[in-house]
Predict the structure.
Amino acid sequence: MRDATLVVLVHQLFFQGMFFAKNIALQRKLGRPVRGTNPEASLAIAFFVIFIALSLLLAQTGSEWGKFALLPDRAALTLCLLLLVANLLVAAASLQGLGDSWRVGVIEEQQTALVETGIYRYSRNPYFLSYLLMFLAYTVLLQSALLLGLSAIGFVLIHAMVRREEQYLARLHPQGYREYCQRVPRYLIR
């Protein structure tokens, strides 16, 4: 098995494992769905699956198609691993920080608390930021123009989900959310 394939597989085991564990535990605790049916979330999830599958395919085959070798393989691997550690730390802090307010997509009929503590003091959307780190890490690892282009599409899809959630939170917590938006950037930088 190629190093790149192993990196993607092990990373996905941890990253998706945290995600599914949180979803299952919270759904059992609350006794109601934690997955919304809005189109933005469904489209983004399908895209994530395609991006990850394509990353695995490129890693396993060692395809040179669309490869841009800006870094030696060892340097690309090292940078990728640093980005993936950041991805896992941000994702874990996000899942933990949201507590019972965690949802996959918007569920209009459910009300959640406005979380402004922990990692949410620095980013209003750290879990989405963790996906952007994953896109960057896999693109660096495989040095793929295809993944770079797909990462841009992934950002657009994530941004659509973020905008939908922002509308929901602005309706649910009008004053508090407006003040929160003034203090904390949408992703990481203002």
Observations:
- The chain has one domain: 3-103+110-183.
